[in-house]
Write a structure and sequence with these properties.
Blueprint (H helix, E strand, L loop, with lengths): L6 H6 L13 E2 H18 L9 H13 L4 E2 L1 H13 L7 E2 L3 H4 L7 E6 L4 E7 L11 E5 L2 E2 H11 L5 H10 L1 H9 L4 E8 L2 E8 L12 E7 L2 E6 L5 H17 L4 E5 L8 H8 L10 E7 L2 H6 L9 E5 L20 E6 L6 H11 L4 E4 L7 E10 L6 E11 L14 E2 L4 H5 L4 H13 L1
Parallel strand pairs: 11-12, 12-15, 15-16, 16-19
Antiparallel strand pairs: 1-2, 3-18, 4-5, 5-6, 6-7, 6-8, 8-9, 10-11, 13-14, 13-18, 17-18
Helix pairs in contact: 2-4, 9-10, 10-12
Length: 446
């Protein structure tokens, strides 16, 4: 499954002005032909393209997009209009890859934020680089004269998210890119803040050339002599993860560490086999992440899988209950037999969402945090495609997955056993409330 490291760029520029021009311009007729090609792909590849929008409403919006096209468009304009169509599906594994060369670097909003979903306000949580006098905890009421309510409405029309949790996560994670979508690259931003019941107006300087931070896929550390913390930030390197788990769980058992906290927050997924590898150290019974898979057969999927049947066929496979599909856990001497606590949030998506859903189903851990972005029933395994005229790259899901224990009503993410409410005080004090709650739970076990 695809992760969403660049999904904010993809989905948040839909409403931006074009600030750089490609050398080549495309005619309106070129873009209309590309859109028609895209629509054919959506309907032939996706198993349920209209699960979140009526087909007639979808068609009307597509016609509106065509009618509003300029006579000539650069590749960024072409991409914006094309992506607006995939965004209508409200399904995060179906998306356009952005023309990164044309986007380039840009001047960025300097602050990071958290979203208070009760008030629809942005709360300043930090800065992209170390900036003195950052007003952490202040509410942003407007940016460049546009209220936060209006900005969030723009984001909601741009971000293809299965639920509010995933929408909020992506808006927070890529806020600088989100604002570029609305305002472009100004030298300064005028922001209206609410600071301790007083309204203040600030002019803040934009930033660029922000250094890239490399985050390791997985790490382990000891909090103290009885608590270990396993951070799983992404899920790509199965071979490395197997080695990592082997040494980590061997150490946990040798030192008789009784408590393990596994942090899946912000993990957008990758390889589901990494989830299986982890659960093999936690479960004492055979397990399975998915109980049912639905595949749409098309010319695109047949090109990838040579044993598929006729186009437009729907293939459904029941997985749960069949021994050949179940994964066997490791022997008891290798498994972790202590208490497990899993931290989740709206960024826990795709394969990461599937892993924690499975952990919860088999009662392998206490779940703490906020609803996952990954839903109990979701779409995935996207097919890579290219538009014939612009060459823009996009992905369309061709499978539907049911998590173990999920049914057609499981369109929400995993709801934690212990849900941690948003708090401005936590933002001001840079408090990790999820982790601190897990530690308090552990203290009660002693």
């Amino acid at each position: 499954m695809k992760t969403f490291i660049c999904i904010a760029i993809i989905c948040l520029m839909q409403y931006s002005q074009v600030y750089s021009q490609s050398a080549r311009l495309f005619s309106k007729e070129d873009i209309v032909r590309d859109i028609d090609f895209l629509i054919e792909d959506i309907e032939s590849i996706h198993p349920e393209p209209f699960h979140s929008i009526k087909k007639e409403d979808f068609q009307k919006k597509v016609e509106d997009i065509k009618n509003q096209l300029n006579d000539s468009l650069c590749i960024i304009e072409a991409w914006k209009n094309s992506y607006a169509i995939l965004a209508l599906l409200k399904e995060g594994h179906s998306y356009f890859f952005p023309p990164m060369k044309e986007i380039g670097d840009f001047l960025r909003f300097p602050y990071t934020i958290k979203i208070d979903k009760k008030s629809n306000n942005f709360i300043i949580s930090g800065s992209l680089i170390d900036i003195t006098n950052t007003p952490i905890g202040a509410r942003i009421l407007s940016i460049n004269g546009i209220s936060t309510d209006s900005i969030i409405d723009i984001f909601k029309k741009s971000i293809s998210a299965e639920n509010e949790a995933f929408f909020i996560y992506n808006s927070e994670k890529h806020f600088d890119l989100s604002l570029y979508a609305v305002f472009g690259s100004p030298d300064y931003f005028d922001i209206e803040l609410l600071v301790e019941d007083n309204i203040e107006v600030h002019k803040v300087k934009s930033l660029n050339n922000i250094p890239h931070k490399n985050t390791p896929e997985f790490t382990f550390r000891l909090l103290n002599d009885s608590v270990g913390i396993l951070d799983i930030n992404s899920m790509y390197s199965l071979r490395d993860f197997k080695k990592f788990c082997k040494s980590t769980f061997k150490y946990l058992n040798k030192k008789r560490i009784p408590h393990l906290i596994i942090d899946f927050r912000g993990n957008n997924g990758g390889d589901s086999r990494i989830g299986d590898e982890l659960i093999k150290y936690l479960s004492n019974v055979p397990f399975i992440q998915y109980q049912r898979a639905v595949t749409k057969v098309s010319s695109a999927s047949k090109h990838r899988y040579t044993n598929l049947s006729t186009n437009d066929t729907i293939i459904e496979i029941e997985l749960a209950g069949f021994e050949k599909y179940m994964t066997k856990p490791y022997p008891e001497k290798k498994r972790f037999l202590g208490n497990v606590y899993v931290l989740i949030d709206g960024g826990t998506y795709s394969s990461a969402g599937s892993t924690v859903w499975c952990i919860n189903h088999y009662n392998l851990a206490k779940i703490i945090g906020n609803e996952t972005g990954g839903a109990g029933v979701h779409y995935g395994y996207p097919m890579k495609r290219n538009l014939p005229n612009t060459g823009l790259t996009y992905y369309i899901s061709h499978m539907k997955w049911y998590q173990i224990g999920a049914d057609d009503n499981s369109t929400h993410g995993l709801i934690p056993e212990y849900e941690i409410d948003f708090s401005i005080d936590n933002v001001k004090n840079k408090k990790d409330a999820d982790l601190e709650f897990a530690i308090e739970l552990i203290k009660q076990v002693r």
